[in-house]
Amino acid sequence: MSAAGQSFIHMLRFCIGIDRAETQTTQAERDCLALHARGKLRAMEIGVFEAVTTIVIANNLPRNAEFFGVDPFFKGRFGVCWGKYIAKLNLWRSGVASRVKIFEGLSWDAAKCIDGDFDFLFIDGDHSLDSIRKDYSLFSDRIQVNGILALHDTSVPDRDPSVASLGSFIYFRDHISKDERFEIAETVDSLNVLRRVS
Asked: In terms of residue numbers, what domain contains 174?
């Protein structure tokens, strides 16, 4: 079966409760995100996918927090992104849809359209070197002092040594980890959580 066919079948199975929404994060990483999202008032996630981590973050923000989920939801062969429908249904079923503002587009478009600073940002979008460089350049200065910047696939976990070949890992190792504006607050599996100190 083609990738488009598999995505469609997965969407149908999700709608009737057979499949779960998919995520590339571990339970330990999601627990870490939940901990660091608590009490934050202005948050963004780059890379919603099927909204598993979006829900984790939303459930740990105060009810008055402003939360943006950014994803281009690239359309497949039939001009539809089935993952977008899974994400929206997942948010609705979880009771957080009204608390997440979905921005359908690339992160650099979101940077132009969404003003202001954040006290929580989770980057889990395109892991290519060029994309993580752009995301970091556009958003790192918009993290408030004492705010959190969480980056997925930036450490190599024992369970997946292939992370070492990703642009997200390489750019974190060579550049982000040396940025004196931030300190590493926690590392869990492939997730690094940074706190802005200056």
From this structure: 24-72+98-196
